[in-house]
Design brief:
Elements lengths: L21 H31 L5 H10 L10 H29 L4 H33 L1 H5 L7 H17 L3 H30 L9 H14 L4 H11 L13 H16 L4 H30 L8
Length: about 325
């Protein structure tokens, strides 16, 4: 009996590392800047204010922010910290996620698993490369106004930065970075995975085949669900805010770690305290994911038409 020749096109697909293009990095930075300058920073300020002032209601947090400077109060920490973070974190994520996904696939991971692994590794890299000190300084900016409430004029942004650096060095301006790393790795793993699961559900409901492109509104719905549901890790975000906050409380641990900070919050405010700010966090997650996944896909298509190049950016 003769052996059957392998059918054309059934050979295993050769694994190739995706190239990192300047257009990808520019696209990522632009989308992040758009996200944070529109709804992103106001939601971040509300979320951080509620996490730092855990006895505040949602309305109380809005009033507290408004009292700090009206509309401008909602954009505290935007310049320069949120802009530095927004313009660099996309590049870090793209480089590391691309490498991690490639190596995961060399060990036999599927596209889905490789994508999650890449997103999680990229999230950790984001935290330690740029997001650690940026989130720390944003939180300091938002919470230092407790000093102003006592009648003392708070120092300026760079004055605060240099003061922390002189007193505590690199460790001081990266306070809470381990909590940021845990948040980022679970965030990106969740967002990618949940968004893709939502896409599969939408395909089933609408009768679309696997791999068939979703419409614009379907992408927005899938991305929004992925972003909103990824707020399940809110306790680590509250811990991060507390570690980076300028709150003056004699009961706080002197040397704060993720573990003793969680214990302090639980003892002070119970389980509910660990979920303070979850509503604006869901809103922020939805908005970020819509910008990066749904609008990102649309922007990629526009860039490809404009440049004639295939944009390989994923997030």
């Amino acid at each position: 009996m003769g052996t059957t020749a392998p059918l054309a096109g059934t050979e295993p697909k050769k694994l190739e590392k995706k190239p990192i293009k300047f257009s990808n990095l520019l696209l990522g930075a632009g989308l992040n800047m758009f996200e944070v300058t529109t709804l992103g920073q106001p939601l971040e300020v509300v979320k951080t204010t509620m996490a730092a002032n855990r006895s505040d209601t949602f309305g109380g947090a809005l009033s507290r922010i408004w009292a700090r400077g009206g509309v401008v109060g909602y954009y505290q920490g935007l310049i320069p910290w949120a802009w530095i973070e927004a313009s660099t974190k996309g590049a870090v994520l793209l480089f590391v996620a691309s490498e991690a996904e490639y190596y995961a696939k060399t060990f036999g991971a599927s596209d889905f698993t490789g994508g999650i692994a890449g997103g999680m590794a990229g999230g950790v890299a984001q935290a330690y490369a740029t997001m650690g000190f940026c989130t720390c300084m944003k939180t300091v900016e938002i919470t230092k106004h407790k000093i102003a409430a006592k009648g003392v004029k708070p120092p300026g942004t760079f004055e605060t930065f240099m003061d922390i650096y002189r007193k505590e060095g690199i460790r001081g301006i990266n306070k809470g970075v381990n909590a940021v790393a845990i948040r980022q790795t679970t965030n990106w793993g969740s967002r990618f995975g949940l968004s893709r699961l939502a896409e599969q559900g939408i395909r089933k409901v609408t009768g679309k085949e696997e791999g068939q492109k979703l419409g614009g509104m379907e992408k927005v719905l899938a991305s929004g669900l992925g972003g909103g549901l990824s707020a399940w890790n809110q306790p680590i975000e509250v811990i991060r805010v507390e570690m980076q906050s300028k709150t003056d409380d004699p009961n706080r641990p002197k040397k704060m770690t993720v573990g003793n900070t969680a214990r302090y919050i639980y003892q002070s405010n119970g389980l509910k305290g660990l979920y303070r700010g979850v509503a604006p966090r869901i809103g922020l997650g939805v908005w970020q994911t819509i910008c990066m996944v749904a609008l990102g896909d649309m922007a990629k298509e526009a860039v490809e038409k404009l440049t004639g190049e295939t944009v390989t950016a994923k997030h």
